[in-house]
């Protein structure tokens, strides 16, 4: 009661929500506090939430959700807010349900190679908590030092090492989910492969917080590889670097990671916090890591060196020691933020293409850059064709944010046109809703919104995300339903 009295708002919903989560210290509702939650890593759109609540456990999440749905209040979940497509932006003045207090490592079961975490548990903390026992958690988004595993599940996050080990969905064994009506359900029979029934785990992973709120996650953990080595290769021509990527994979090597940065990206990372002395005049750098049984590492490294030399590499060498390797990775993994050293603002795009189309697509992205008069840096998971064109712009110049969005959209169109798609790991959110039409027909979009309706019938949970503004798909849905009735 004391905490309730401390609430300065006369809004009954604020008062009631505060009561559910334990009082004034567990809710934000003043404008000056809410501005910190008006966007995520996609900073072009900003909207204030009605309030932010900080539940401590699943029961409190369920009660908040039930309260919101009974009172027609839109709501959404938020992890660390590092999402790059605007998934956690409260477009409709939502109640944000922050997961940051639910950050426990619940259990580790080395024998069965699994761990159970709360959704606010930070990705890298998991590896840090088990590495002394010889284990790690494989999905490693570059934001892993702060993003949450709940957010990773929602976005089906990838990362540099997902080329060999797969993305988040390949490492999720079970979920506890609060449904949009407040019901708590268990999804997935912990760790049992191919359990009977629909693959709801697969459906919820990557659903961008539109089907339910994840409150507990069982993940697969892996044994540390016996050995690993990393190679750095500089190319004078992007085409040679791209061709080396294809050649490495065609040679039958499956690197743990195969990353590429172009000249503009190199300018950024060298001007930022972790420079490693990349030459300023090269067109592309590849970072290639292999891991596995110690005895096989040297042979793979020699093969990679040979492939790079055949593709006119200017310089190629393996890391001298662990310190150098870690430095190379810090240089790469802080690449997005490094753009801040060469541009006031940047927009991260996230398309996927068949690897063989790399030279063609990079040249088209260059054309887009020229056409829009905006520099575009490219940092990407080259091994799996997941591009991140970074459109550099200055939001203070009127109209430039819009231009950056259009240039980003054009980059995605190029990816879709060569047989790729519009997101590899950052999700659709609000950023790429309209671009869904590059890869899905109206009927396919309508079918997907039908699935959302099964879980989230009134669309109070994270509305306005993932799907384009209702266009013809609404009509098509009506037609299909009418036909089904007649049939
Ligand atoms: C510098 C930088 C580098 C990045 N590198 C990568 C990368 O290499 N690979 C990659 O995949 N991504 C990357 N990202 C994007 C981002 O970090 C990931 O999408 C991450 O998974 C988001 O986690 P989060 O905790 O920040 O989630 P948030 O941004 O808070 O939320 C993201 C979405 O998940 C939903 N959500 C959050 N928690 C839950 C929950 N418990 N239940 C249901 N829905 C929930 C939200 O509603 C929202 O729709 C990067 C971002 C930055 C800023």
Topology readout:
Elements: H1 2-6, H2 12-21, E1 27-28, H3 31-34, E2 51-53, H4 58-70, E3 75-78, E4 95-98, E5 105-109, E6 114-117, H5 123-130, E7 135-136, H6 149-155, H7 162-165, E8 172-178, E9 184-187, H8 200-204, E10 213-220, E11 222-223, E12 227-235, H9 238-250, E13 257-262, H10 263-271, E14 284-292, H11 294-310, E15 315-318, H12 322-333, H13 335-338, E16 345-348, E17 351-352, H14 358-372, E18 376-381, E19 386-393, H15 400-417, H16 436-439, H17 442-455, H18 472-486
Parallel strand pairs: 2-4, 3-4
Antiparallel strand pairs: 1-2, 5-6, 6-10, 7-11, 8-9, 8-10, 12-14, 12-15, 13-14, 13-18, 16-19, 17-19, 18-19
Helix pairs in contact: 9-11, 14-15, 17-18
This protein binds flavin-adenine dinucleotide.
Overall description:
By secondary structure, the chain is of the alpha+beta class. It has four domains: 2-98, Uridine Diphospho-n-acetylenolpyruvylglucosamine Reductase, domain 2 (2-Layer Sandwich), CATH 3.30.43.10; 105-223, 2-Layer Sandwich (Uridine Diphospho-n-acetylenolpyruvylglucosamine Reductase, domain 3), CATH 3.30.465.10; 227-342, Alpha-Beta Plaits; 440-486, no CATH class. It contains 18 helices and 19 strands. Strands 12, 13, 14, 15, 16, 17, 18 and 19 form an eight-stranded antiparallel beta sheet that branches. It has a five-stranded antiparallel beta sheet with strand order 5-6-10-8-9. The longest helix has 18 residues, at 400-417. It starts with a helix and ends with a helix. The model has no long low-confidence stretch (mean pLDDT 94). Bound molecules: flavin-adenine dinucleotide. The site of flavin-adenine dinucleotide has 37 residues, from strand 3, helix 6, strand 10 and helix 13. Flavin-adenine dinucleotide binds at residues 40-41, 76-84, 87-88, 99, 119, 141-143, 147-148, 150-152, 154-155, 157-159, 208-209, 213-214, 336-337, 425-426, 462.
